[in-house]
Write a structure and sequence with these properties.
The radius of gyration is 17 Å and the shape is globular. It starts with 13 loop residues before the first helix and ends with a strand. 41% of the residues are buried. Helix 3 packs across helix 4. With 242 residues, it is of the alpha/beta class. 29% of the residues lie in helices and 18% in strands. Strand 2, helix 2 and strand 3 form a beta-alpha-beta unit.
C-alpha cells in the first residue's frame, strides 16, 4: 500500500494508534545479572519503511522489531532497555500515549535506571535521543552513531514533519536543537566523514565540549559497524578523532 493511502505521520491512523495507546507499547526490558548497569538501546527512523503499511505490519506488529535487539542478546547486565518511535519522528511524541514527549520519556528512563550506571546507544534519530537521554540521566557515556544534533539543519524535516513543526512553533530552542541541551556525560559520536548530512551535523557536535567525534571513512549515513564498536572498537576504520 502506498503513502497516498497509509501515512506514517497521520496522527489519526488507527493502526499506529493501536500500537501506541498502552504504556507498555514500544518499550522492552530484559533483565540480567545484578551488576547495577543499564543499557538503553534506541531504535531509529529506519525501524520500518516510512509510509509503507505492509512493512510496518511486518516489522512492528508481527515481528515486534526493536533495533539493536538481535545483535545484543549476548550482552548481560542488570537491565537492557529497548525503545522505539513508531511515528519515525525523533521521539518528539515519545514512545507511547503515557510517555508521549521527550520529557516524559526522560522521566520514564530515569525511573527505570535509578541508582544504576547507564549507557545509551543509538543510530541516526536513535543517536539523537540517546545523546539527550545520556545527558539527562547523567549516563556513564553514550555511543552515538551518526545522530543528529540540530534538526533545523537536517534537510527540511522541521518544515515537513508535522510533529517537529508543532514542536518548533512552541519553542525554537527545543530538544530538536540537541546540542543546546547536552550536559557533561561523555558522548562518543561516530561521524561518517564522507556523508553530507553527517558533515553538517558534526558542525553542531563540535559545539559541545562533552562530545568526542570519531570520524569513520564512509559515505553512508550510520554505517560505523555498530556491533563491533559495542564490543571491540571499529576494526581500524576510524580515520581521525576530533
Amino acid at each position: 500500500m502506498n503513502g497516498d493511502v497509509w501515512k506514517t505521520l497521520d496522527w489519526k491512523n488507527s493502526e499506529l494508534q493501536g500500537n501506541y495507546n498502552s504504556e507498555t507499547d514500544n518499550i522492552k526490558i530484559r533483565h540480567g545479572k545484578k551488576d547495577g548497569i543499564a543499557y538503553i538501546f534506541c531504535s531509529s527512523n529506519s525501524l520500518y519503511k516510512k509510509d509503507d503499511r505492509q512493512d510496518f505490519v511486518s516489522k512492528v506488529v508481527n515481528k515486534d522489531k526493536f533495533e539493536w535487539e538481535n545483535i545484543t542478546q549476548d550482552i548481560d547486565h542488570e537491565k537492557i532497555i529497548y525503545i522505539r518511535d513508531i511515528w519515525l519522528s525523533w521521539y518528539v511524541v515519545g514512545i507511547n500515549a503515557k510517555y508521549n514527549t521527550i520529557d516524559a520519556l526522560i522521566r520514564k528512563m530515569r525511573e527505570e535506571t535509578e541508582g544504576m550506571q547507564v549507557i545509551t546507544v543509538g543510530v541516526s534519530s536513535g543517536g539523537f535521543i540517546a545523546a539527550i537521554l545520556a545527558s539527562s540521566l547523567k549516563a556513564s557515556y553514550c555511543l552515538d552513531f551518526a545522530g543528529q544534533f540540530s534538526l533545523l539543519h537536517h534537510w527540511t524535516h522541521v518544515d515537513t514533519n508535522p510533529f517537529l513543526k508543532e514542536l518548533y512553533s512552541k519553542n525554537g530552542h527545543c530538544f530538536g536543537e540537541a546540542y543546546m541541551y547536552l550536559g557533561d556525560s561523555p558522548i562518543y559520536y561516530f561521524e561518517p566523514a564522507l556523508c553530507e548530512q553527517d558533515i553538517e551535523q558534526a558542525k553542531y557536535a563540535k559545539m559541545c565540549s562533552n562530545v568526542k567525534i570519531l570520524r569513520v571513512r564512509s559515505k553512508t549515513h550510520g554505517c560505523a559497524k555498530e556491533g563491533d564498536v559495542l564490543r571491540r572498537g571499529t576494526d581500524g576504520k576510524i580515520v581521525s578523532v576530533v
